[in-house]
Design goal:
The structure is a homotetramer of 202-residue chains. Chain A is mainly alpha-helical and 202 residues long. Chain A is built from ten helices and no strands. Chain A folds into two domains: 1-54, Arc Repressor Mutant, subunit A; 55-200, Tetracycline Repressor, domain 2. Helix content of chain A is 81%, strand content 0%. The radius of gyration of chain A is 20 Å and the shape is elongated. At the C-D interface, helix 7, helix 8, helix 9, helix 10 and helix 11 of C face helix 1, helix 7, helix 8, helix 10 and helix 11 of D. Chain B binds a DNA duplex (21 and 21 nucleotides) through residues 4, 7, 11, 32-34, 37, 42-46, 48-49, 53-54.
Chain lengths: 202, 202, 202, 202
DNA sequence: CATGAATGAGTATTCATTCAT
DNA sequence: TATGAATGAATACTCATTCAT
């Protein structure tokens, strides 16, 4: 961790922050490298000292986001011994720091929507894997709950879990896209939590 | 309805079909007008006889899709006098003909994700309005059910409805994006339906 | 001169009139064949029954104009036995029907200005030839006047004639381009005539 | 005047020189930006670093030319106290550096001839204004000469001046278009000068 | 003869990327 | 290391011309 490395990393973060901001404002295809350079207050050439191509920017952005999330999910497993509580905590987690995600949502959309771009960035794969790990978390917790008798046994863990994942993504996405009032959204989350709890508890 | 009008309309449909196919395969930005022309087996120039610009293609595609949906929602209101049944039918409707929608999902993503593009196509507006009409449908049915005593009265119709809309969109989207096995998805829908019914029924 | 030929000729004239009108309004390069067809109230395809290419239109227009002028110049030679009078009549001729020419002036400019276009239309050649025949007319008259003793003998006929041709073209062109008041322009012509007469008369 | 500014201005001149050369050879509409880039020995993209659009090239070319002329006209007023001499000097000025103008004449023609192009370049306006300032110069000198008794008093200054302007433009234009022998043209100018002098002197 | 739908060659402009300084 | 001037591949759209009806 020489000072040079720190500098490099700091500069990479500056660039990413600028990129996120500009991508959020104009979208990936409408953003020029020059825009990002200007936002980051450096020359166009400098960007290429830190990122080989334009595509590497969203690639890196997504990588960091997913990494963050995975770490937090792992924590829940450790801190919530009760499966039902863990599930509800997992739901909460999906809606945490959503305002931060909101900036990146359009970028995710645009990249996922463009297969050619997606192929070279590999977001789909990462995204699926991310959802899959969330799914696995729920499956595991449900099955644990069932074997402990807290969760109704005639519930298909894989099916319910996957439905829950889609639901959470849908709700989070709508929040990010349509900028609900925080209270309104909190109420929705509350209703969902309530519904899920009463549906799965035996 | 002279033969010429029939021809024109048929040709527009041909072009739209080709456009949908190519957009689905490569994404909007990666699709060249030449690609669409080739797919539609006609010259580039011909495309411009039927659509003024490239942007007019997704615009038209979205317009037709949304129109279809609105008509079907109206039918449900008429054919399902029972509110709970109407709600469940509405849920079913969201998952009907999903394979057709699947082709267009990436296009929707890409356009929604790119603010600049979205502004000139106006998809966001249409899309929000579409979700809003679905939301209204659920709100209306829930309130009707509450006044008839079939639905628990301590449920906030606007909050539950909006959560349900996000949920349905999330599930439909995941189906379109990740190409679930039909049976697997049907099972998810079944669980959702079951959960919703037992949650709202008094 | 069967009726068919008359019809053909009439239709050609219709097209040329439309072409002149549209060329005058928008210029050659900005005029689409479709514009001319619309102005002439016929189909685009019909134009091609009467003129092989777009370039043939200005070619024909110029041809007719020059032909007209040549005929009129010949008349002067026959009707004005007095050389000085003939010269002044030649000057007058250049300013006759100028309003009709005014429509075509921009077209002439645009074609003369574009060497590539000019090459294939051959306007430069025609135009030079036209000016040359006017020049010859003046040369001939001046020399006749000199041998008859009416025109000062120490005047170089070729030099004065060519200067006069440029002058006439300059004045006619400015009238066409800048749309002088007729009286203002008539006064200019009068001054020129007066100056020329007093300069050449012995 | 940092070195960068010097470079930029030099490069602009290089491009303009190339543009003038190619426009002269093929005409505005027939000239591709690639042609100019090749002539200037740089990439197409570089042109756009210095000029936003193709139209900006003739716009700039005309601007520089007109500016030059205005400056020179002002000098004459100061250096020629005698009105008749000033007028003759003005005439001479119009024929100075004509070979340089010759390259641009076709471009002027093409732009003036195409209303659509002219509108966005604004050449007509500049050109009229230029002629008007020349006209004003002559009007002023004639009237000064008349009040000093050197110029015949029964001469309408505005009418004669405007006629003279058209004449000068006509002669200059024909020289540029038809590439007269310099001696032949000088003789024409000499005759014109002689004629004007003897016509206006009292 | 008349038509206008179909065509595709042709072009201004953009922008990711490079590299000399 | 930082820069931004230079580059040219890439692409939507136009329009003269053709030809089936």
């Amino acid at each position: 961790m020489s000072p040079k490395i720190v500098d490099r990393e700091a500069k990479r973060q500056e660039i990413l922050a600028a990129a996120i901001a500009v991508f959020a404002e104009k979208g990936y295809h409408s953003t020029k490298m020059a825009d990002i350079a200007q936002k980051a207050e450096m020359g166009k050439g400098t960007l290429y000292e830190y990122f080989r191509t334009k595509e590497e920017l969203p690639k890196t952005i997504f990588g960091l986001m997913i990494q963050d999330f995975d770490q937090q999910i792992s924590k829940i497993e450790q801190t919530h011994p009760d499966p039902v509580e863990a599930i509800l905590a997992g739901i909460q987690l999906c809606f945490q720091d959503l305002d931060e995600f909101a900036h990146v949502t359009p970028l995710v959309f645009e990249v996922l929507g463009n297969k050619e771009l997606d192929r070279s960035i590999g977001l789909s794969e990462d995204f699926e894997q991310w959802l899959e790990s969330l799914n696995q978390f729920f499956v595991t917790q449900i099955q644990a709950g069932q074997s402990q008798g807290q969760i109704v046994s005639d519930l298909s863990a894989p099916i319910f879990a996957r439905m829950l994942v889609s639901t959470l993504d849908g709700m989070a996405t709508h929040y990010c896209l349509f900028h609900f009032q925080p209270e309104f959204f909190a109420a929705q989350v509350s209703v969902l939590t309530d519904m899920v709890r009463s549906y799965i508890r035996s």
